[in-house]
Amino acid sequence: MATESPATRRVQVAEHPRLLKLKEMFNSKFGSIPKFYVRAPGRVNLIGEHVDYCGYSVLPMAVEQDLLIAVEPVKTCTLQLANTNPLYPDFSTSATTIQIDKTKPLWHNYFLCGLKGIQEHFGLSNLTGMNCLVDGNIPPSSGLSSSSALVCCAGLVTLTVLGMNLSKVELAEICAKSERYIGTEGGGMDQSISFLAEEGTAKLIEFSPLRATNVNLPSGAVFVIANSCVEMNKAATSHFNIRVMECRLAAKLLAKYKSLQWDKVLQLEEVQAKLGISLEEMLLVTEDALHPEPYSPEEICRCLGITLEELRTQILSPNTHDVLIFKLYQRAKHVYSEAARVLQFKKICEEAPENTVQLLGELMNQSHMSCRDMYECSCPELDQLVDICRKFGAEGSRLTGAGWGGCTVSIVAVDNLTSFLANVHKAYYQRIDGSLAPEKHSLFATKPGGGALVFLEA
Ligand code: GLA
C-alpha cells in the first residue's frame, strides 16, 4: 500500500461521454488529440475537522465528483492551461520560475502548486511543457476539496508527462506541501484521500507517517451532502490560518506549562505524545493550563518569554501578523475532543453494534457543536441546514471541510432517504431565491469513491 502508485487504466474514450466531450473540446482548443487524461476526486470528511494540521487522524471518503484533465505533452517549455468552465480564464506561461500569487487565489495557481511540487521533488528547473484542458464537477468553495483535487490532478499530470514514478503516499505528501504555496497552512487530509481513496470504503488517515486504513461504513445508512450555498474559499480569507496559528500557540503554551521544550513544538498532538497521556487527560491539562478568556499577543509573549517581534516573525504566518485575539482554550478543547471522536467513530464502525447508525450520528452531532461553539468555524446557514437535516430524520449532521460555508454531511437511514431528500429540499432550497447552485450539486447521497487515476485511450 505505502509504495503503490496511482493506477493507469485503458479506456475506450468513445464509451465515456465526459472523456469524449473533453477530447473534442481539447481538439478544438489546441488542434490536437490528448495523449492521456488524469482524474482526481473531491472528498467529504465524515468526522475529524480541523485536526489534521494538529497531527491527528481524520476520517474522509472520496466523492464521485472529480477533476479531469486532458493532457498533451509539448517539447517547448510552455504550459497552456484552459478550463471547460468559461468562468476560469485561459492561462499560459513559459517562465522557468513558477510564481504563485498568494494574494489572489486564481484557479490556475492551484495547478501551478501541483506542478511546482513535482518539479521541485525531482530538482527540475525547466518548466514541464504541456497543453491541458481542465474539467471539474466538484462544486467550488463548498468544502468538498475542489482546490486540492486540482493540485493533486496537476501533480499526477506533471509526473506522467515527466515519465517518472512516485507512490500515492509520496504524491499526497508532495501535494499537501505544495498547496501551501497558495498561502493556506492546510493539513494533509484532502490530498491524502484524493490519492489513497478506494471505492466502497471510507479511510482513517493517519499522519507522520502517512497511512490509510479502511473503515467500512454501516450498510443500513447513507451519507448525504447538502450545500449551504455559502461560498467559502479558505485561501481568500485569514480565518483558516488564524485557527492553525491558535492551535500552534495553544500547543506551545501547553508544552511550556508542562515544562517541555516548547520552542520546537508545532502541533497539539506533539504535546500529547511527549506527555504520553490520553486525549481525555489532555482535555484536563488544557483546562488547568489555559483560560477561556481570549489571549492577547502581549499575554502570549509574556507566557512564552518572547518579544512581539519574535511572535510575529518566528511563529505566526504572514496573514496572521496583525491578529489581536487568540482563543487558545476553545481551540485546544475542540481538537482533543474531535480527535477522540474520530477514534470512537472508527471503533463503532468496526464493532458494528445494533445501534451503529445512531451512535455515529451522535458523534457527528457532537462534532458539529464543537465546530460551532469551540472552533467557531460554522455560519448561520450551516447551523440552520444541520438543524433541518436533523429535523427530517438524519441521525446526525455536521459541517464538513474547513467550514464558514460550504456543505453539511448527514447520516441517514436508508429507509428514510427518499423522504429526507424531499423534505430537506423543500425546507432549505425552495425557500431561498433562485440564485442557489444547481439542485444536483446541492443535495445528494454519496458513496465512497476511488482515488486519482491516469486514463490512456485504448
Ligand atoms: C481544509 C484543509 C484540510 C483540513 C480541513 C478541516 O479542507 O485543507 O487540511 O484542515 O480544512 O478539517
Automatic annotation (TrEMBL):
It is an enzyme of class 2 (transferase). It comes from the Eukaryota. Residues 25-73 form the Galactokinase N-terminal domain. It holds the Pfam family GHMP_kinases_C. GO terms for biological process: galactose metabolic process. One of its GO terms (molecular function) is galactokinase activity. It catalyses: N-acetyl-alpha-D-galactosamine + ATP = N-acetyl-alpha-D-galactosamine 1-phosphate + ADP + H(+). Keywords: ATP-binding, Kinase, Nucleotide-binding, Transferase. PROSITE patterns: GALACTOKINASE, GHMP_KINASES_ATP. One of its GO terms (cellular component) is cytosol. Its EC number is 2.7.1.157. Residues 352-416 form the GHMP kinase C-terminal domain. Residues 109-196 form the GHMP kinase N-terminal domain. Belongs to the GHMP kinase family. GalK subfamily. Monomer. This is N-acetylgalactosamine kinase.
